[in-house]
Specification:
By secondary structure, the protein is an alpha/beta fold. The chain folds into two domains: 290 residues, 7-stranded beta/alpha barrel (Alpha-Beta Barrel); 129 residues, no CATH class. It contains 19 helices and twelve strands. The strands form three sheets. Strands 1, 2, 3, 8 and 9 form a five-stranded parallel sheet that branches. A five-stranded mixed sheet has the order 4-5-7-6-10. Helix 2 packs across helix 3 and helix 8 packs across helix 9. It is globular, with a radius of gyration of 22 Å. The C terminus is likely disordered.
Length: 450
């Protein structure tokens, strides 16, 4: 039988409170506890608990014929512990069945693999240890934040001992080839790659409840019929999406939970497909070809690149400013600084600064709690200004830490203001003080058009 791999991402960031210029140096707590608690509890009620109940029911009914894979970010796990412990218990019940695989990822759901190999490895190790502690099994497969992948990231993942990784079935990488096979990394051929079938995945994640879609309503029978039309030689279909698809992005009244219950049953009855976890697919199948990916790809937007997070000057300024202190944080023993270091690395903060108003603009607006990308940037940079002051003070108060080359470089980097006046956006930004005059008519966005 051919294989179908269901994988779900579970992630929640710690959202920032409104943090003003006059808070810098006076208040070191950055998080909107009310919003984080409210959202965590709402999504637990609307998505995690009912969806986990459906999956557990399917496992109880079909046994080993139904399997699924998850990755749960460290920040999501912390929120479960703090606000909704019943969600964590429901995931533990799924883990106890033996039919659910939990993947490794970056603890902070960060983009650190793009620029800091040491911090990347630290986060992956921290996340893997957390998963083992919670579920009793060490992860054997890896999934990077937002399926971000490149040749260099593949090398780091393989060096950490992972033999399997997920990424997007991007056309700019695949060309004419189908995502419905197992592949491997071209420069690191021991690393096997599962590629997302974005057409079928997005039919569920984004189009399921769109009444103007020509395939609406999407039933389990129709979806199974599409799978059965896949070329018989294609041995694998990977359906990857946010777990919040169920009940949060696609509301319960859309019929999404009914679909989730009916689809596996319909597929199992065909006896043509077998549900397998990520690691089972990697073990059972052999790569048919290698994938060369010198430039990073992701599963975001039509471009499948990094422009959702790093496509404009605002995002790049915030990203580079944060990682100026990597050398200090590598040896930091302060628990509060370590917590904030993790939380501020979450990719969501940079996503909120995206200025892509074309193609996927509605999607970005839906996920953005700020009034505009400029508000997101200013708020984050105020928080970051305070954080960098604290990091510098920590390093200066512990002279032994300053002896390393990395820390000396990091201290020198933080001597300059966090932000400087930029011609592209007509802003005055001076070491945390921010005054928006008026956005320029055209921001220097590097995203590709269709």
């Amino acid at each position: 039988m051919r294989s179908i791999c269901l994988y779900f991402q579970v992630h929640q960031p710690f959202r920032l409170r409104t943090y003003r210029f006059f808070d810098i140096g006076a208040d070191h707590y950055y998080y909107n506890d009310y919003q984080n608690k409210r959202i965590a509890r709402r999504i637990a009620s609307d998505c995690y608990l009912p969806a986990n109940e459906v999956l557990l029911g399917l496992i109880n009914e079909f046994g080993t014929a139904f399997k699924v894979s998850f990755s749960i970010s460290g920040t999501a796990i912390e929120q479960f512990k703090k606000y909704t412990p019943e969600v964590l218990e429901s995931f533990k019940r799924l883990a106890q069945t033996g039919n659910v695989e939990f993947l490794a990822e970056t603890y902070a759901h960060s983009l650190v693999g793009l620029n800091d190999p040491a911090e990347f490895k630290r986060q992956v190790h921290e996340h893997a240890a957390t998963i083992k502690e919670l579920f009793g099994v060490a992860p054997t497969a890896f999934r990077n934040t937002e399926l971000v992948y490149s040749n260099s990231i593949a090398g780091m993942v393989l060096d950490m001992g992972y033999k399997t990784m997920l990424t997007e079935g991007s056309k700019q990488v695949l060309g004419w080839k189908s995502p419905n096979f197992l592949y491997c990394s071209a420069p690191h051929q021991r690393l096997k790659l599962l590629l997302r079938n974005y057409q079928l995945s997005d039919d569920l994640a984004f189009r399921f409840s769109q009444k103007d879609w020509n395939e609406w309503p999407l039933t389990a029978e129709k979806f199974v019929s599409w799978l059965n039309k896949v070329e018989p030689k294609q041995e694998l279909v990977n359906i990857f999406m946010d777990y919040e698809t169920f009940g949060e992005h696609q509301k319960a009244d859309s019929g999404i939970f009914g679909f989730l219950r009916a689809f596996p049953e319909q597929l199992i009855k065909t006896r043509k497909w077998a549900f397998r976890t990520v690691s089972e697919v990697s073990t059972d199948l052999q790569p048919v070809a290698s994938i060369d990916c010198p430039h990073a790809i992701s599963w975001a937007d039509e471009e499948r690149d990094l422009t959702a997070w790093l496509g404009n000057d605002l995002q790049q300024e915030a990203f580079s400013s944060l990682y100026k202190v990597s050398g200090i944080m590598a040896d930091c023993k302060d628990a509060d600084l370590h917590r904030d270091w993790n939380y501020l690395q979450a990719s969501d903060h940079f996503y909120y600064m995206c200025t892509k108003w074309f193609s996927d603009g509605e999607v970005h607006h839906y996920f953005n709690p700020y009034g505009s990308p400029y508000d997101a940037f200013l708020n984050y940079m105020n928080v970051l200004s305070d954080f960098l002051i604290r990091v510098r003070e920590y390093a200066e108060n512990f002279p032994a830490a300053i002896e390393t080359t990395n820390v000396r470089k990091a201290l020198k980097a933080t001597e300059k203001p966090v932000s400087k006046e930029k011609n592209t956006t007509k802003k005055e930004i001076k070491a945390g003080e921010t005054v928006i005059k008026k956005p320029a008519k055209k921001l220097a966005v590097k995203a590709k058009t269709k």
